[in-house]
Design goal:
The chain is of the alpha/beta class. The protein has 24 helices and 30 strands. The protein is globular, with a radius of gyration of 27 Å. The C terminus is likely disordered. Bound molecules: beta-D-glucopyranose.
Length: 846
């Protein structure tokens, strides 16, 4: 089938098939009946953009169910929920005519400061893999494709466009690629999205080792590699490396380079054809997936003509599911018995998030919700009696003495204060990283003032990532909702009022301060990011170093308590099966997340203190006991041997730890491995010594660990051909925009771009209070923070043709003061070959 069509395609049509058009579509070839595909974001709901030019404003998107974000879902420790959420999102995709969902994001949380952590599952690859796999299976079970992203080692937003992640092979394999490997092998996603950044000196979009050697040859991926929007560095190099589809496309320069390279032989026909074949297979998969979904379900079902089904999804059911997930994912982090509220207390509610709940993040994942249930609405529906004081404003970081005083005065008449607070979208978003881990002063100071009244204070926290909690000791209770989706208010009310018991646990460690993170010495210091901590990420580092945390990985309370007993271990085939009896020792029903970690007692190479190998969630009535069974493959105990270039299961004794969190080990048992191998230590002595414990700084031997001789210099993200002595390096297509201010013309260009966005921001500030205003504020703010770090190349590549390549080149030339070259590029007239959809049927046959 693919071969049959392939033979009939012209070179121009092949090039067109491998790029996007109108931002969210691929090109069709009408004369051969090849349809276009519709791709949309994103992980927690369908973001179907209304118009081609539509951006990130909610009004530009079709309404859809806004489910809890991935950070939230992972806190449920129940991958079944990710599966069901995937199914529901796919149903909405089918109704909206969407073929491929740009989700899930399974990057590892390296630092709590990464602005996009809310879109990712965990710091742990096993958790990320479990949720990623379940989600992809859920979506694809309905015939919609998933595009798993962002491949790979994309742990910073500030430098995502130009940055270079320098990472050693073992950390790459054990931490950063592991979830991708697992999802690719177990869920078979239709597509993988390569990230913007470089990995060890080569942009992901042209990284042959990553896209072909590892992804396809080692893992057997047979789908399409899609660029992140604007990630193309060199289109032909990209194809040679195994990157198939250029999105959002519309960059004529890229299509032309494919055509020219194919004609000159630089791009061998078989390489081009392999990509086209993969693209045709994707189209076929989507077409047959939709046809399967359209199969009439009963004898009276109407005839289908093969077109996509347009049956309406049950949005009411999806809202209920969104609420259930939010309820199961919230994490109770502290409770002195104040929660659940018993209903008799005089309640003071403080914080604008009570009526303007933050339920999702900002950036490409922004969903226009079908509706929002705020905590206020949920309280009112239940007839809860309370006094409400705003206390602070969400989109204004300044303190407001009048609001603060009113809240403090109102505390006089209250027994319990419930404070709704958290991070705002101006602090946490795609496109930029957080500069610190604090909440806004307007919230922290107000909390301190309320605590000083001596009343009980319950904090209900909405944030996609951990925050500093300097007032923690004074709190009576802390309920962390993460970013709970559009029904989060309903979930919060049910949990606060005891209609449901919290059962979420943290899927990431919660450090006291950002300085405690194991990557802190080189996080966002510049475009070269040295992943000097190697495999010591999250609890793998904290537990080894004995770092004092606010909350450990896997931590969470309930309204009841659980006991663990009778741990037993047996081997079955290559699997290890651990059983234990878990009992509900309290008077309320609840669910416990049981975690199983493995520890290598003595081994050839440095290892984290322990690593998660399995987990299970068990629901228990008061007094009930259930036997849980946790199974894992022995290869989970192996490590990546850099000398042998493969995983090695080391013989010897391992300790298995059954735990309620990474810091709460309840039962242990020994496991002796005898069918593995004697590994031997592949590291030079100085590396073995430096990494015996997580390094606090970049060790001098980091170069030996990664294989780069000099990691302070190597590899540079923007090797500038024109480096001259005693002069600033030239501006290039890769230079971050903010550096264009170095020259007069560059400044003119930069200021012009920034001024126009700031104008939009100002306009948004003046809009009447509404969801639309909030989303415009956050999205223009997102651009203000993100653009200074973009390069002209990524601007051009993501512009859908609005910024043609020769104009981008002209800007660089002009900014460097080469007027004649710049102007001649600017005036260059190129006559693009029309796209297949623009040609009359039959006319382009070749
Ligand atoms: C994001 C992707 C997203 C794409 C399309 C990019 O900026 O990194 O995650 O899918 O935009 O919106």
């Amino acid at each position: 089938m693919e071969n049959h069509i392939l033979g009939r395609l012209t070179l121009e049509e092949k090039a067109a098939l491998l790029e996007g058009t109108d931002a969210w579509y691929t090109n069709s070839v009408p004369r051969l009946g090849i349809p276009r595909l519709h791709l949309t974001d994103g992980p927690h709901g369908v973001r179907k953009v209304r118009s081609a030019g539509g951006g990130f404003s909610v009004s530009a998107n079709e309404p859809a169910t806004a489910f809890p974000t991935s950070a939230t879902v992972a806190s449920s420790w129940n991958p079944e929920l990710a599966f069901r959420m995937g199914e529901a999102i796919a149903e909405e995709c089918l109704a909206a005519g969407v073929d491929v969902l740009l989700a899930p994001g399974i990057n590892i949380k390296r630092s709590p400061l990464c602005g996009r952590n809310f879109e990712y599952y965990s710091e742990d690859p096993l958790v990320s893999a479990a949720f990623g796999t379940a989600f992809v299976r859920g979506v694809q079970s309905k015939g919609v494709g998933c595009c798993v992203k962002h491949f790979a080692v994309n742990s910073s937003e500030n430098f995502r466009f130009v940055g270079n992640s320098v990472v050693d092979e073992r950390a790459l394999r054990e931490i950063y690629l592991r979830a991708f490997e697992s999802v690719v092998k177990n869920a078979k996603p239709y597509a993988v999205m390569c990230s913007y950044n470089q990995i060890n000196g080569t942009f992901a979009s042209r990284n042959r080792r990553l896209l072909t050697d590892i992804l396809r040859n080692e893992w057997g991926f047979d789908g399409v590699v899609i660029t992140d929007w604007g990630a193309t560095s060199d289109r032909v190099e990209g194809l040679l490396a195994g990157c198939d589809l250029d999105m959002p496309g519309g960059v004529w320069h890229n299509r032309k380079s494919i055509i020219e390279a194919a004609r000159s032989g630089r791009l061998p026909a078989e390489v081009l054809d392999a990509s086209v074949r993969r693209m045709l297979r994707l189209i076929e998969r989507c077409r047959s997936g939709k046809a399967r979904a359209a199969v009439p379900k009963g004898p009276d079902a109407p005839e289908q003509d093969g077109a996509a089904p347009k049956s309406q999804p049950d949005l009411e059911k999806h809202a209920e599911l969104a609420c259930k997930i939010a309820r199961e994912s919230a994490v109770l982090l502290k409770n002195d018995g104040t929660l659940p509220l018993h209903g008799g207390e005089r309640l003071l509610v403080v914080g604008e998030m009570f009526e303007k709940m933050r339920f999702q993040g900002a950036g490409s994942s922004l969903v226009q919700p079908t509706r929002v249930i705020t905590p206020k609405e949920a309280f009112d529906r239940r007839g809860v009696t309370y006094v409400y004081e705003k206390g602070y404003r969400c989109f204004d970081p300044r303190r407001d003495a009048r609001l603060e005083q009113a809240a403090v005065r109102a505390a006089d008449g209250a027994d319990t204060i419930v404070f709704f607070g958290g991070l705002t979208d101006l602090e946490e978003s795609e496109g930029f990283d957080r500069e610190h881990m604090r909440l806004g002063d307007n919230q922290t100071e107000l909390l301190n003032m309320l605590l000083a009244t001596g009343k009980k204070v319950v904090l209900v926290l909405f944030a996609g990532a951990p925050v500093e909690l300097p007032f923690f000791d004074g709190l009576s209770a802390l309920l962390y909702m993460v970013l709970p989706g559009m029904c989060g208010g309903e979930a919060a009310a049910a949990l606060l009022l005891g209609e449901a018991a919290p059962s979420g646990k943290l899927a990431e460690s919660w450090p006291m301060r950002p300085e405690d993170a194991s990557c802190h010495a080189d996080y966002n210091r510049g475009p070269v990011a040295r992943y000097y901590e190697s495999v010591y990420v999250g609890y793998r580092a904290y537990d080894k170093a004995g770092t004092k945390l606010r909350f450990p990985f896997g931590y969470g309370l309930s309204y009841t308590t659980f006991q663990y007993a009778n741990m037993a271990v047996r081997e079955e085939g290559g699997k290890v099966v651990v059983t234990a009896d878990i009992s509900n020792a309290g008077r309320r029903s609840g669910a416990e997340v049981v975690q199983l970690y493995a520890r290598r007692l003595s081994g050839a190479v440095f290892r984290p203190d322990k690593e998660l190998v399995a987990f299970a969630k068990v629901s228990l009535q008061p007094g009930e006991t259930k036997k849980v069974e946790l199974t894992f493959d022995k290869k989970e105990l192996s490590f990546w041997h850099v000398g042998l270039g493969r995983r090695v299961l080391e013989n010897g004794v391992y300790e298995l730890l059954l735990a309620a969190s990474a810091a709460d080990i309840r039962l242990t048992a020994e496991l002796r491995i005898t069918d593995g191998e004697e590994a031997g230590n592949p590291y030079p002595p100085e590396v073995a010594e430096a990494y015996a414990m997580p390094p606090r700084d970049i060790p001098p031997c980091f170069g030996r660990l990664t294989g780069y001789a000099d990691t302070s210099e190597t590899p540079s993200p923007a090797p500038s051909p024109g480096r001259r002595k005693n002069r600033k390096p030239e501006l290039t297509m890769e230079t971050p925009l903010r550096e264009f201010r170095r020259t007069w013309t560059g400044r003119l260009f930069y200021n012009g771009v920034m001024r126009s966005i700031r104008r939009e921001y100002e306009k948004a500030l003046k809009m009447p209070d509404s969801l639309e205003r909030d989303s415009r504020i956050k999205n223009t703010h997102f651009l203000i923070r993100m653009l200074p770090f973009e390069s002209i190349r990524t601007m051009c590549m993501s512009s859908s043709g609005a910024l043609p390549y020769h104009v981008a080149e002209a800007v660089v030339e002009l900014a460097n003061g080469r007027w004649i070259k710049g102007l001649s590029l600017l005036l260059k007239k190129d006559k693009p070959i029309p796209l297949p959809k623009e040609t009359a049927p039959g006319s382009a046959d070749g």
